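lol forgot to send this yesterday, sorry. struct tokens for the thing we talked abt
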């Protein structure tokens, strides 16, 4: 299915990052099946907000978002990506990733990387569909807390 036309992507730099962060945290359960609030540290909105994007419907609702950063060694790190539960499988996740890819390429990035839970089938499917290769990082988030590192080249 293609993305509904009513959705617009807006860079966090054009928004009030603090207000958006509070709204997204208040709606956390619409975006996530697992607890991710601690991963929404203000630094991702205030200092790295220039790399983030919010997907808004025509009626002004937050329906998806992406947080990330490009590092000094040209790695585009996609920190969090979420689409609201009623808007999934419409191409919005793919659209947010494409937005981040473009910004990252323009910032000089060569590789994009995301880290997710091995059991997050939707995220794994999305990134592998885009061409990412997966590597299981044992204990990455603590003892017994394995994560999947998904890495993809940013071809020009
Ligand atoms: C992962 C997530 C962002 C995907 O967003 P989405 O808007 O539904 O994804 P898209 O519609 O752009 O899907 C793109 C492709 O990804 C794959 N995909 C996405 N969700 C899938 C699912 N549930 N099962 C299988 N494949 C899936 C498909 O290949 C899909 O292409 P298709 O619809 O043409 O078959 C969304 O499921 C989500 O927000 N999940 C909860 C938060 C989360 O786990 N985020 C990832 C960790 S950072």
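and heres what i got for the seq, position by position
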């Amino acid at each position: 299915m293609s993305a509904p036309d009513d959705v617009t992507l807006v860079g966090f730099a054009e928004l009030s990052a603090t207000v958006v962060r509070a709204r997204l945290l208040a709606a956390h359960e619409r975006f996530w099946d697992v607890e991710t609030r601690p991963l929404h540290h203000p630094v991702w909105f205030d200092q790295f907000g220039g790399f983030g994007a919010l997907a808004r419907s025509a009626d002004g609702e937050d329906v998806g978002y992406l947080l990330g950063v490009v590092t000094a060694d040209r790695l585009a790190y996609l920190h969090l990506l979420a689409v609201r539960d009623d808007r999934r499988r419409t191409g919005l996740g793919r659209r947010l990733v494409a937005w981040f890819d473009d910004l990252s390429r323009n910032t000089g990035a060569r590789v994009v990387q995301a880290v997710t839970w091995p059991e997050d089938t939707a995220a794994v499917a999305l990134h592998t569909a885009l061409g990412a290769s997966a590597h299981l990082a044992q204990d990455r988030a603590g003892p017994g807390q394995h994560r999947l590192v998904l890495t993809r080249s940013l071809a020009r």
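The chain has one domain: 8-153. anyway ping me if u want another try
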